[in-house]
Amino acid sequence: KVKSNNLDVKITESELETEEKGMEEESARESDSNILDVSSDYPREKHISIQRHLADLEKLADLKEDEKKPCPLCPEEKFKACYSHKLHRHLQNLHWKVSVEFEGYRMCICHLPCRPVKPNLVGDQTFSKMGAHYHCIICSATITRRTDMIGHINRHVNKGETESRFITVPAPKSHEVLKESATDVQVLPNYSTPHKTDSYFNPKMKLNRQLIFCALAVLAEERKPIECLDAFGATGIMGLQWAKHLRSSVKVTINDCNEKSVTMIQENCHLNKMKVKLNTKEDDNDEAMGDGEENTDTIEVTKMDANVIMHLRSFDFIHLDPFGTSVNYLDSAFKNVRNFGIVSLTSTDISSLYAKAQHVALRHYGCNIVRTEYYKELAARIVIAAVTRAAARCNKGIEVLLAVALEHFVLVVVRVLRGPSPADDSAKKIRYLIHCQWCEERIFQKEGNMVEENPYQQLPCDCHGSMPGKTAVVLGPLWSGAVFNPGFLRRMLFEAVQYGLDEAQPLLKTLVCEAECTTSKHFSTHSPYDENKQEECGVYIKTPNTSAESYLVHGKRKSDEVIWNAAKRHKPESSAEHPAFYYNIHRHSIKGMNMPKLNKFLNYLSEAGYRVSRTHFDPMGVRTNAPLAQFKTILMKYSTPTYAGGQAEGPVHVPEGVQAEQAQAAADGKAEDAEFLEDGKSGVTAAAFMKDYPTHCAAE
Fold first, then answer.
1. Which of 7, 382, 538, 562 has the highest count of CB atoms within 10 angstroms of its CB?
2. What are phi and psi of 269, to 5 degrees?
């Protein structure tokens, strides 16, 4: 018996040793397999917890009605063998319902001892400490939490690693081809997620790309060829559109600091049958790009930081579209931009510009802002002020050609004027704004350094005298000049019609009306110029009908192309100044009154002798040079009471002569309102009802 016992002990010890060796070999194999999973591409067998259907998971358990079966994903110590109906509920509720889905597969939760156990745990503690986990379908990772597993899968997708090494079926294509403006681009599956992929492409920015293309097309008509830079290429869609449509008029350079984005830009160039010139040295630039015929469809792709390439080279057109604010690149952009060149920038940090994160606006732009009714134009003027300061530091002035603020971005396009005098003139247009928080009245502070005793006197309203406490705030510094150039916008509209950019045409028409401050305008798309030369930025610029000798040579204009106006420093008359900001008609409506239609209200303001137009910043906004008090007076004059009681003895005091105007408005198209008012005269008035109201209450 002792010998047999000793033999049994020896057998058990040998079995334990062999089991320990087997466990060590398995762990070594698992570690080797983990290393192979990172580098190998061959498919291997998936884990049993990864199934397509619940029935496949039940097949592993081999369910039978008369026999007890254990759970295939749980150890026996955790879940004992049971009959089929109980095991079915266990698999469905514990494993299947909390699974993570990916490409038709379900990664069910697993309770098997797959994860390594801490070495200080022995005995029964190992089973209690072995928590549930998931097996990744793409790599060999085991993750405990479901939310972490979902994030882990998303990271694989963002990196383009969607090919599962556990699945033997062919994986779907990892790249998708999109088409915009006759240009094909290759993007990753999650191309519309910023900061999650190397090549970000936003289809909602199509209008932005069309506006920038029109601005570049106008500049290309002034001088040829021009060197243009897309500083943040991503997929290269914008630079490809420039080169594909403008052809030999432009020399396109697409830059990006990310290596994967540069690779994708090269692939997109080949996809659109464009030649690629990669990482060319500055010394060999003239030799490589010397022949115009050979490099008609050649795009230069560079891998540099945006600040570096703008410091090293000079361009006629620069576009900045970083993720968020672009203030970090303004100094470099204005460092070497050529005279009369154009700098366009797209700012997508709308949370700070639209006064949702005021501390961020103060940090990035050095500007104090609050939420107002004209917050979109306020955002555009904040960006222009930052551009002006950056240009002035480089002894350059600016002329604002276009400023657009929509839901997703703020676009600013400026023309660069070299010299300290234009820089001083532009810097003088940066002022502070006094804004009344009660009535939304606003006015720019007067020029000068003298401190006023009572700044509230500058406001046209009298809210400070009638309201307690402080009623106004100082916003800024902001750009106080015009934010549109009517001549440039008309030429952009002409280019949009020429190239068939349908989405940009309605917005450009609205911008032309807003720039000229008119309600309606006839657009002539065949001849955008009234004369052979047009005045912009204080200079006369010849139209495309001039001779070809007026084109750009080596980045400088010839003397016969640009003729400085002798009276370029003559300031325009006050009547011709563009009205700053706008009023929202709903914000200033009178309670208990029906407002007139917006187009009719614009006509009423125009008949009163004021300049008026609609604005793209706000669908219900009115841009006018009328004071707010006169704006409200005309609005109240042509509004009709909502209820009959308001006409007889009303809380709304209607001035004299308003009834005649209301009758005329009713005759024009509001007959039903006139009948409603006539019936209200014979009805019970509000004052009579309130007089008898206590009697009715007592009776009840």
1. 382
2. -65, -45
